[in-house]
Design brief:
The complex is a heterodimer of chains A (about 300) and B (about 270). With about 300 residues, chain A is of the alpha/beta class. Chain A contains 11 helices and 13 strands. Chain A folds into 2 domains: about 220 residues, Rossmann fold (3-Layer(aba) Sandwich), CATH 3.40.50; about 60 residues, Alpha-Beta Plaits. Chain B has one domain.
Chain lengths: ~300, ~270
């Protein structure tokens, strides 16, 4: 077992009667890319805030780099780079000024930060925007700047809360590429997301959260293996007929999920099943065979889909 | 070269290290950088306003009014209102910086949230922002004195003490203003600040002595910080000291400490609970 940077046991956060995080256990190893996957309101962001020493737990224990955030908040925050869900860049400053002043918040010397800025502007591909006001940047650029800003203090752990929410597909891919590079340099990443593709792309290991609890834990592949089949056959018969044919389909494979618009059938060989369905003269209006994803894992664990 | 972690560790055993990282100046540094690109209009207005009042009232109305009993001897009307206007501009500047500016950084741009995700503590943020407001008060006071001295409105050298006094009352208003703002969530609530401020300044004796009021109203006005600020600056302007001066100073000490306490506490509760 490699060195554990973050370790939580029975971690709980309550707001009045509402339990946002409900007695969760997890460990994050050094150099690992660890994900918290779940729908909005699952308790991911609250967990992130507790790790980031900007929110106090109600009960349980958590140690970050061997320290308790309740006692050592500032020291723990010195180890972290935080990328919040909502960009909070300094709108009155330029791109490079944003990086500079953030380094100053950590107490770093001006000389060190000036050198660091060049490296970070290269990394974030924002060299030609260095003197631009933040307002003039696109959503993807702002996100990259926020990540670059979080790196100014050379953190051991980078915390990313929903890093690509609200970005267009191209901007997401650029961002993923940047995060991959970071991972290669050995930075530990902690990522929350409600996008299964993002979790599959970025996370070595993840926990699936729902309603403040951890439902499952493992690598994306392990989770898919454990909680789903190799392939999924998606069939649509039109909203009226779906209900009609569902009982017949249920006989044909070990597990099906009826969604409002389509039926998912979990099998090892999707094409073979589709042929069997056609042989019964049940002609679906559309059909699709695909690999199982984390979305299917989530559906299996909670009976609901990730994005509602 | 020290790393961020070493810097934080070095402070870890100090009392209050969770609240204060000893880097309020980083917040100040940010304010200076932002100044370069920010709009100068409100800053310049804050400086011009008392000068305009001085011209309009001191020389316009002053012609009709003649001499006034300042409570520290009878003086020309313009000389009477000059320190009152100085105090008012210091207070207004401090309030502008600590209310609307703070409200924006708290609720709109989420700037404080970002700052508090670093090793900085809430007291760093509060002190840094308030110090900025003070510097503004300081520059207004110096500029005002520089304009009024050649006009013959400054009775003596002791008036130079009105500068630190203006900074001190700006400190009180800034820290109290920031504390109140940190509890406000909506623009409607912020609007209330303006409703309270305008009459407070108009009726607090910057333009005439409050002895013209009936006793009950005079007493009421004496409860407000603006009156204490105006009287403090006026005392020093005329080189006049008595127990009242100490009372004014004490009033602002309480304001400063209470304001800092509640601002720090509120920032902690908002972003670190």
């Amino acid at each position: 077992m490699p060195e554990s940077l973050i370790s939580a046991r029975g971690l709980t956060k309550k707001y009045g009667d509402f339990t946002a995080v409900d007695a969760i256990d997890f460990d994050v190893a050094k150099g690992e890319s660890f994900g918290l996957l779940g729908p909005n309101g699952a308790g991911k962001s609250t967990t992130m805030r507790i790790i980031a020493a900007t929110s106090q737990r109600s009960s349980g224990t958590i140690s970050i780099l061997g320290r308790d955030p309740e006692e050592h908040g500032p020291q723990i925050r010195a180890h972290l780079g935080v990328v919040p869900q909502q960009d909070n860049l300094d709108g009155e400053l330029t791109v490079s000024e944003n990086l500079f002043i953030y380094g100053r918040y950590f107490g770093l010397s001006k000389k060190f930060i000036r050198n660091k800025i060049e490296e970070l502007l290269d990394f974030a591909q924002l060299q030609d925007k260095r003197d631009a006001k933040v307002e003039a940047l696109s959503g993807g650029m702002k996100r990259r700047l926020t990540i670059a800003r979080a790196l100014v203090s050379e953190p051991d752990i980078l915390m990313l809360d929903e890093p690509t929410t609200g970005l267009d597909p191209q901007a997401r891919h650029i961002l993923w590429d940047r995060l991959f590079r970071l991972k290669e340099t050995g930075v530990t990443l902690v990522i929350t997301t409600h996008f299964m593709d993002e979790a599959e792309q970025l996370c070595d290991r993840l926990v699936v959260m729902d309603k403040g609890k951890i439902m499952a834990e493992g690598s994306p592949l392990e989770l898919i293996k454990q909680y789903s089949t190799k392939e999924v056959l998606e069939v649509r018969f039109g909203s009226d007929r779906n209900k009609e044919v569902a009982p017949i389909l249920r006989e044909m494979c070990s597990r099906i999920e009826e969604l409002p618009d389509r039926i998912l059938m979990y099998v090892e060989d999707g094409e073979a099943l589709l042929e069997a369905i056609t042989a019964k003269k049940l002609h679906p209006t559309t059909s699709l065979v695909r690999r199982s994803s984390l979305e299917d894992v989530f559906l299996r664990l909670t009976g609901r889909s990730l994005i509602e | 070269m020290k790393s961020a972690v070493e810097i934080a560790e070095a402070r870890a055993n100090r009392w209050g290290h969770q609240l204060y990282a000893g880097r309020a100046r980083a917040i100040l540094e940010r304010a200076f950088i932002a100044l370069r690109s920010s709009t100068w209009v409100p800053i310049v207005t804050g400086f011009i306003e008392p000068v305009l009042y001085l011209l309009a009232f001191g020389y316009g109305m002053g012609e009709l009014i003649g001499d006034v009993d300042s409570g520290r001897g009878t003086v020309d009307y313009a000389v009477f209102i000059a320190p009152g206007l100085l105090a008012t501009s210091a207070m207004n500047g401090a309030i502008y910086d600590s209310t609307w500016n703070v409200f924006f950084k708290l609720n709109e741009s989420k700037l404080y949230k970002g700052m508090l995700a670093t090793p900085l503590g809430p007291l760093d943020v509060a002190l840094g922002e308030i110090t900025w407001a003070l510097l503004r008060g300081l520059s207004y006071a110096i500029a005002f004195l520089a304009i009024t001295a050649p006009l013959g409105l400054v009775p003596g050298v002791s008036a130079i003490l009105a500068i630190p006094a203006a900074v001190f009352i700006a400190f009180g208003f800034a820290s109290f203003g920031m504390a109140i703002t940190s509890y406000f969530k909506t623009y409607q609530q912020m609007g209330m600040i303006n409703i309270v401020l305008l009459p407070m300044f108009l009726f607090s004796g910057s333009l005439y002595p409050i002895s013209v009021y009936p006793d009950w109203l005079e007493f009421l006005i004496q409860l407000f910080p603006s009156w204490h600020g105006i009287e403090l600056v006026r005392d020093l302007w005329f080189g006049y000291w008595d127990s009242g001066t100490l009372l004014h100073l004490g009033y602002f000490c309480v304001m400063i400490v209470t304001g800092l306490y509640f601002t720090t506490r509120r920032l902690r509760n908002l972003f670190m609970r």
